[in-house]
Amino acid sequence: MAPPFRRRSNDEEPKKENQEDYDLDEVVEAENLEGTKEKIVIVPEELNKEDFQEKMLESAKMVTHTCMDIRREENVLIVCDPTTGEIGQALHETARKRSDRVLLIVMPKGRHHGEEPPAPVANLMKQQQIVIAPTRYSLTHTRAIRSAIREGARVATMPGMSNEMFVNGGMTANFNEIKKNISNLSGVLRRKRLIHVKDKKGTDVEFEINWREWKLDDNGICNRPRMITNLPAGKAFIMPREGTMNGTIVIDGTWESTLLEEPLELTVENGIVIDIKGDSTAAQIRQQFGEAATRLRSKDRELVWTVAEFGFGMNPEARLTGHVLEDEKRQGTCYFSIGDNSSLGGNAIVGIHIPGVLSKPSVWLDDMQILDNGVFLSD
Fold first, then answer.
1. Domain limits at 81?
2. CATH code where residue 133 lies
């Protein structure tokens, strides 16, 4: 695997003055080659084409007007790929009602989450006040996005977004209301140091947290410089204190982007998953994490099994669809992520981070119960 940062060698030619323009032409040309087949607009079965277009524009307006709050004369870049072209066009149409400085670019589809966009796209990002990126694979954790944010951009990413997801479910939520509800949690979460999660499938796990580290800004409202959001949004989350988690976690909703037919049972000791049981999915997970471990130093390999993140969904319109971006936001669910916790301040720098969703958990903060079988008990 190539290192994430590479120094230019002394004998490497510097980029020509207009090289970015040439590169951009190559991006467009690559897209033209990919788009030579007849364009097919995928319309959800329950909608006719006119209703579909109307709902696309409704969702796009929610993104551009409410979530991003585009203002007059702001520079806006919409980055899509061949799988999200209709979404990109809808966002472009509604964004232009707020600003006349809106650029839509279609880049070639990536190969995996976290792959860097083409250099000219990354350079364009740094020149914007707003970047909106509905793409097949996530750009959230790329250097390009981090650089744009450092330059002052606010960013919304929508990895894996489909036409159906864009017009239904979590994307139809009132994000101002979600922001209010998540903000109201701060008093409930204050000074609570122990979390206990149980469910009827066999989950029974406890762990400590630093209550000041709760992340309460995943609410879909991204209206200030250097902010970033995933859409659809709506969750509260935190890193479990390393080494403190013990018990059993039964994942019965989704794992990554798979709706589970059989639950996965994870045994956790001192914050590390030491055993995983289930159907063939369990074997695939062991293989996937085992391969990730081989890329680490021997003393760090156990860390791939770190329980890295815990959170619960706060989006009342989100569904369990087999798409993690929406699944972990479903109100009444909770999730645990296994793997890398470095973005939350942890020590497991392992290059893999995969969530699993519990569909109807009961959750206690110290001795206060806030969820009962998937129903919130606290306002």
1. 43-167
2. 3.40.1830.10
Could you tell me the pTM of the whole model?
A: 0.80
Rounded to a whole number of angstroms, the CA Rg of the chain reads: 21
Question: Does residue 336 sit within a domain?
Answer: yes
Residue ranges in the chain whose pLDDT is less than 50: 1-41
What SS3 state is found at 164? Answer: helix
Question: Within 13 Å of residue 68, how many CA atoms lie on the same side as its CB?
Answer: 34
C-alpha 286/C-alpha 124 separation (Å) is 40
Give per-residue pLDDT as tens, 158-192. Answer: 988 999 999 999 999 999 999 999 999 999 999 99
Decide the pairing of beta strands 102-106 and 194-198: unpaired
Residue 37 lies in a domain: no
* Confidence (pLDDT) at 351: 81
Task: State which H helix or E strand residue 178 sits in.
Answer: helix 175-189
Do 116 and 216 fall into the same domain?
Answer: no
Q: Do both 199 and 96 map to the same domain?
A: no
Co-location of 71 and 138 in the same domain: yes
What integer pLDDT is reported at residue 375 of this predicted model? 95
Tokens encoding 292: 């990730």
Question: Is 158 in the same domain as 198?
Answer: no
Question: Which residue, of 124, 139, 167, is where some domain finishes?
Answer: 167
Same structural domain for residues 65 and 96? yes
pLDDT tens-digit map of 100-149: 999 999 999 988 777 889 999 999 999 999 999 999 988 887 889 989 99
Q: Which regions of the chain does DSSP assign to beta strands (E)? A: 76-80, 102-106, 130-133, 154-157, 194-198, 204-208, 215-218, 228-230, 235-238, 246-251, 254-255, 258-259, 264-269, 272-277, 307-313, 334-339, 353-358, 362-365, 368-372, 375-376
Report yes or no: 148 and 175 within 8 Å, Cβ to Cβ. no
Same domain, 204 and 350: yes
Spatial separation of the C-alpha atoms in residues 40 and 125, rounded to whole Å: 28
Q: How far is residue 90's CA from residue 78's CA, in Å, rounded to a whole number?
A: 10
Segment holding 53, helix H or strand E: helix 49-61
Same domain, 133 and 275: no
As a whole number of angstroms, the distance between CA 264 and CA 62 comes to 36
